[in-house]
Design goal:
Elements (H helix, E strand, L loop, with lengths): L1 H19 L1 H11 L5 H33 L3 H21 L7 H8 L4 H9 L2 H6 L2 H12 L8 H23 L2 H46 L1
Helix pairs in contact: 1-8, 1-9, 2-9, 2-10, 3-6, 3-8, 3-9, 4-10
């Protein structure tokens, strides 16, 4: 029993953690809401963690059935999700620096409205920044690879523990990413923001390319 529990936890955590990459998600969230207060960042981190929990749970349990119901293939999911990630990265790259926004922008960015943060908590900060098409695809694959005899209580408990570990890591990384800003300073944060925006754009392009390559491969197979 303990062996099955450990195996389930390790399978999910090792399969999903590198793709979700909570530290990178925390830094990217920081670049998108750089002026949030610690209390606002804590609320935002909690919302992102809860949203991620439900998305991953849904992907593991019924994700394959939902895609099949709507006739959406995994390559199409990757292309659509990759485009959203790439656009988010491009917008961050094109965003003006704080020094170029003027006094009006300084007043506006002094207060981060709670309603605006709540609106961003699910899209784009949870989906697709934190839990994107890559992690959804892996979660669906892991869900469809469940034991043929059906899920036992041990597997259910293992899935619950693994998801809690993943979402707790997301919460911690998003919640305390603000400490990086104190270490780097304003100029350092601008450099990190641009670098992460470029990385985010590249990730989106990579996801799109993977989806397009799979679509082209399927077309070649049908042509034969």
């Amino acid at each position: 029993m303990l062996n099955e529990l450990t195996k389930t936890i390790l399978l999910l955590v090792t399969g999903l953690f590198p793709i979700i990459n909570p530290p990178a998600s925390g830094f990217i969230t920081l670049t998108m809401v750089p002026h949030a207060s610690p209390a606002e960042r804590g609320e935002l981190a909690l919302r992102i963690a809860i949203n991620s929990l439900f998305i991953l749970l849904g992907s593991l349990s019924v994700g394959a059935y939902v895609l099949s119901f709507f006739g959406i293939s995994m390559p199409v999911l990757r292309v659509a999700g990759g485009l959203v990630v790439a656009v988010a990265g491009w917008n961050l790259l094109q965003a003006p620096a704080e020094d170029d926004t003027g006094s009006d922008a300084q007043q506006e960015t002094g207060v981060v409205h709670a309603a605006s943060l709540r609106a961003k908590a699910f899209y784009p900060l949870t989906l697709p920044i934190t839990v994107g098409p890559g992690s959804i695809a892996v979660a669906i694959a892991l869900g469809t690879g469940s034991p043929r005899a059906g899920l036992s209580p041990v597997h259910v408990v293992g899935v619950a523990i693994a998801l809690l570990i993943l979402c707790a890591s997301i919460y911690v990384c998003v919640r305390f990413a603000g400490h990086l800003e104190k270490l780097l300073g304003a100029v350092g944060m601008q450099v990190v923001m641009r670098l992460l925006a470029f990385v985010l754009f590249c990730i989106g392009v990579q996801i799109v390319w993977l989806g397009v390559a799979e679509l082209l491969e399927s077309l070649q197979l049908h042509a034969k």
